Amino acid sequence: MPRPISVTISVSALSHNLAVVRRHLDQAAASASGADGTQWVAPSIWAVIKAHSYGHGTAQGVEGFAQADGLAMLDLAEALECRESGFARPILLLEGCFEPTDLELADRYRLTSVVHSREQLDMLAHSRPARPLDVLLKLNSGMNRLGFAPDAYRAAHARALELRDRGIVGSIGRMTHFANADGPAGVAEQLAVFQRVTGDLPGPVSISNSAATLRYPEIALARPGTASWVRPGICLYGASPFADADAASFGLKPAMSLRSRIIATQDLRAGDTVGYGSLFTADAPIRIGVVACGYADGYPRHAGTGTPVVVAGTRTRLLGRVSMDMLAVDLTPVPDAGVDAPVSLWGADGPSVDEVAQAAGTIGYELLCALAKRVPVRTVS
Asked: Which of 89, 151, 182, 260 is most exposed, with the fewest beta carbons within 10 Å of its own?
């Protein structure tokens, strides 16, 4: 029989989280609309499904986010998979196209592309699409990854307008990405740059990731008749973009649950150690369980003693070093647990992926994306 480890992906949790984000934006629009007749509308939602829906699976993302206004990802193959599965709404390539053949496929499959460099504009200028390609022209407002510098943006926009006149480009939107929406620095500085450089330009706007969508929903609101988009990612999977607020506080549900079972137990005496490097030493008699899960399954090797684990419905802790295929847990809080006892490593009936990530000195994003192919996946409605 196979090892007793598996991951469950809940499509209904994905749909629930999308609905939570939409309600959050709708409430912001209702609050901002004034008694004097000033009206604001909630932005449309690009559901970000890059990295195979943050490790949840592209097909699961398409199903779970069927009510999204559009999907966004990096990989062209994932975009084509979404189209071929029947998703008919807009699909955004977040890093744009990398070579001319990508533009041909973007044309054939009716994709929208980010344009963030002079080289991408050059490539567009030499293309011959059957229909104009909708683009989002990206401003580097301070993240310093992708995008045109503020003093180069207007010239890039003017060139995009020339390409529109030639029938190569269709809609020209404006886009940026916030570096500190999840922290105390916030978005004010970058937002001011974006508004100063692009504020008088027409076209759709997309500026907010998960953190900005949840913490600053008002900045993405639009006037009636104008187009604005947000790009939530991690929050749609039931994890938090914040160190100081958990996903549950926003009403989000975990969509991925990693589970296994105890495959052996050991009774230790005071002074006995556990695992490679003997990183845990018992200071009194203790009973431990050995769980069929390790770093080859995607569990973080750098998670140490004290990382939360749930055994048979009771919260306990990891002990010692995580091995390739196994880890050890403290059975003191659950003395009746033995071989075959269920173990929840993160997810719906265990610790949150963010708790595990924090204990391991990383972020939930990394753990969700690192799930190994050898772990069997079960999708539930």
From this structure: 151
Look up residue 348 and give its DSSP letter. T
373 among known catalytic residues: no
pLDDT interval class at 2 (50, 70, 90): confident
List the catalytic residue out of 54, 153, 276, 373. Answer: 276
- Please, which pLDDT band fits residue 35 given cuts at 50, 70 and 90? low
Q: Name residue, tokens 């020209």.
A: 172
**DSSP state for residue 269 in the 8-state scheme:** P
Amino acid at 204: P
Catalytic residue among 50, 153, 253, 365: 50
CATH class of the domain whose range is 11-245: alpha beta
40-68 confidence digits (pLDDT tens)? 999 999 999 999 999 999 999 999 999 99
Question: Is 73 annotated to bind ligand?
Answer: no
Half-sphere exposure of 99 (CA within 13 A, CB side): 2
Which residues in the chain are classed under CATH 2.40.37.10? 256-379
**First vs last Cα of the chain: how many Å apart?**
26
Spatial distance between the Cα atoms of 72 and 330, rounded to a whole number of angstroms: 42
Q: Rounded CA gap, 352 and 224, in Å?
A: 39
| Digit-coded pLDDT (tens) for 107-146 | 999 999 999 999 999 999 999 999 999 999 999 999 999 9
Examine the residue annotation and report whether 138 is marked as an active-site residue of this protein.
Answer: no
Superfamily of 256-379 according to CATH: Lyase, Ornithine Decarboxylase; Chain A, domain 1 (2.40.37.10)
Gap between the Cα atoms of 271 and 267, Å rounded: 12
Cβ contact 132:162 at 8 Å: no
145 in a known ligand binding site:
yes
Which segments of the chain belong to CATH 3.20.20.10? 11-245
pLDDT, one tens digit per residue, over 179-209 is 999 999 999 999 999 999 999 999 999 999 9
